[in-house]
Amino acid sequence: MKKIFFLVILFISTITLSFLFDPLNYITKSNVGLQLQFYNKGGKISIYNPFVYKIVSFDNFTETMRFPEIVKGLAYIESGFNIHALSNVGAMGVAQFKADAAIDYGVFNAWNPQQALLGADRMIRYYYQKYNDIYKVLAIYNIGETNYKKGKYIEQGNAYANKVISASRTVSRKSYLYDRYVLYLQGTLTENSSQTYTAFSFGGIFDYLGIVYFDISSTFHFREGYFPIELGTKSYIRINHFASFVIGYNLGYNLNYENEISIGPIIGYSHFRPIGESYEIYYDFSKGFSLNNFFISIGYGNKYWRINFGFEPEFNNLFINITI
C-alpha cells in the first residue's frame, strides 16, 4: 500500500507542477525540439514540446513609465509580447535588448518583463531628451545611434518607427504578455558494469517572469534486481541574462531493496548564452559523496542548435549532446 501511495504522489506531483507553470534553451524555442545524447556506452533521446500561455497584462508595468503607449507598441513589434523571444543576433526578451545595451538602462535580466519594459522606457526617455523627436528615437532603438548618425539603414529605422507608432495606437494596454512552458519525454539505454541499463523520464520546464526557472521530472530506472523511481527538481535562480544559481532536490525510492529511500539537495551554477557558450556544473548529494556525483556540461550553440560535452552522474557516463 505504501508503494502504491508513493507512486501516486510521485506521478501527480510531477504532472501537476509541469502543467501549472512554465531552462532557457527550450523556453526560447517555439517548435518541437529533439535532443540526442551519446554516452561512451549507450545513448538518450529527448523530445521537448513548448506551449504558449498568457501571464500578465502589459498595463501592470506602466505606473512609472513616461512613454507607456510607445513602449507598448515597441514590445508588440519587437516580440509580440513574448517574454522569451530570441532573435537570430541574440536580442533577448519582450523588448529585445542586447546584453551590452541592456545594462546601460538598468536591465540586468532581459528575460524579466518588468526590467525589460522599464528599461525600454528609460532608453526612450534618454534619446527623447537628446533629440526631442519620437520618430528619431524609435529609429535609433532599431538601428542604433551610430548607424543613425552615419546615415545607415535610415529607411529601415523610419519604417520601424512608423510600425511602433501605429501599434501604440491600436494595441490595447490590457494586452497580455506571453510565456512558454515545456513538457518533455526522455528514453535512455546504457551499459554499465556489464549490465544493460534503461530509464524513462517525463517532466516539465517552466519559469516565473524570467526570474526563477524550474526543471521537474520523474525518472524510472530499469535493470536486473533494481527498479528505482526518482523525482528530481532543479531551480535556476537567474543572476543576470546568462548566469544562474542551481538549487534542487532529488528523491529516490527503490522498490526492491526494503523500500530504500535516497534524498538530498542539488547545488550548482549555470551559465547559458543563447547564442554562444554554455556551461553548467552541479552536485547531487542524494547519491552520496563522490567525485562521480558531479554533473558537468560545456557547450556552444545558437537559436537553432547546440552541442554539449560532459559527464552525467546518473548513468556514470561521458556524453556528447546535440539539441536541434
Automatic annotation (TrEMBL):
It comes from the Bacteria. CDD domains: LT-like. Residues 68-153 form the Transglycosylase SLT domain. This is Transglycosylase SLT domain protein. Transmembrane segments: none annotated. InterPro entries: Lysozyme-like_dom_sf, Transglycosylase_SLT_dom_1. SUPFAM superfamilies: Lysozyme-like (SSF53955).
